[in-house]
Amino acid sequence: MRRRRPVPPSPLPQRRGIDPVRLRLPEEGRWETVRDHLVDRLPAVEPALIDAMLGGGEVWGTDGPVDPGAPYRPGAYLWFHRELPEEVPVPYAVEVLYRDDVLVVADKPHFLATTPRGRHVTETALARLRRDLGLPRLSPAHRLDRLTAGVVMFTVRPEHRAAYQGLFQDRRVRKEYEAVAPHDPGLELPRTVRSRIVKERGVIAAREVPGEPDSVSRVELTGHRGGLGRYRLVPLTGRTHQLRLHMSSLGVPILGDPVYPTVTDPAPDDFGRPLQLLARSLEFTDPITGRARRFTSRRTLSAWDSHREWAAGGGPRGADSAHPSG
């Protein structure tokens, strides 16, 4: 069995914390030039723009910029930077809880995606941390939903990523969340919620369906006042939107949720009422050192501290805060 050649390093640096696009030319193809292949492979890009990129030396191979008339070479690698769209800046900082030569643990704010996806590219925790910390090879060990704040972990070097990703894939990380939602005196808690969740591509909301459960969440009430409850949530599985869907199915949807129980469409610059869900802590045995690790968010949920201010919205001043906990 023929071994695949290692991928050569990119000849282009990152741009605003984002890696260049890398393409490998197919081993078999009818194209005479690199330009012909790019026009077929990138139908969403106007041929005139491809010509401009080639003419401007923006498409690179392992030996440097690709000539506009360069012949097609099967198996060759190409790199170029995609156009980075203008994004609404998320007006909250990413706090660094811990940093060493292996790990960076961040306290992510609400509204900031963990990694580039869809319309969120440079306004992501990964891109910001790469720029701010000068760590171009930083990569995520897992992801935290864009609307959820709290603890998220990154690896400094690619060779360590698989070990830490494996912790999450094998469910060897104890994750604890905090949420603010309506208080229902008739809801018997604590309890363990089990259901089967389906999340279809292109559909924003997940849903519960009959069948063997594939999602398990522990729900506890830790306090209540003024019709609101403060909840400790412990997911034992990691399905998309699991905690949000389970809380909604119990009749106590998390405050500020634009999807459960009803899908709304807030404006991209509406930062007034953050989802009241916080990834409070991560706890695990370090796969590299064997040490017990626990990282805890310093953030608080604003609807619990002052529901009136949270309900009034108002942008950054209504955002959940990050400060050392007592």
TrEMBL record:
Signal peptide per UniProt: none
Sequence segments annotated as region (Disordered): 307-326
Top-level taxonomic group: Bacteria
InterPro entries cross-referenced by the UniProt entry: PsdUridine_synth_cat_dom_sf, PsdUridine_synth_RluA-like_CS, PsdUridine_synth_RsuA/RluA, RluA_PseudoU_synthase
Pseudouridine synthase RsuA/RluA-like domain: residues covered: 103-249
Pfam families, per the entry: PseudoU_synth_2 (PF00849)
CDD domains: PSRA_1 (cd02558)
Catalytically driven reaction(s): a uridine in RNA = a pseudouridine in RNA
PANTHER family: MITOCHONDRIAL RNA PSEUDOURIDINE SYNTHASE, PSEUDOURIDINE SYNTHASE RSUA_RLUA-LIKE DOMAIN-CONTAINING PROTEIN
Protein name: RNA pseudouridylate synthase
Native organism: Streptomyces chitinivorans
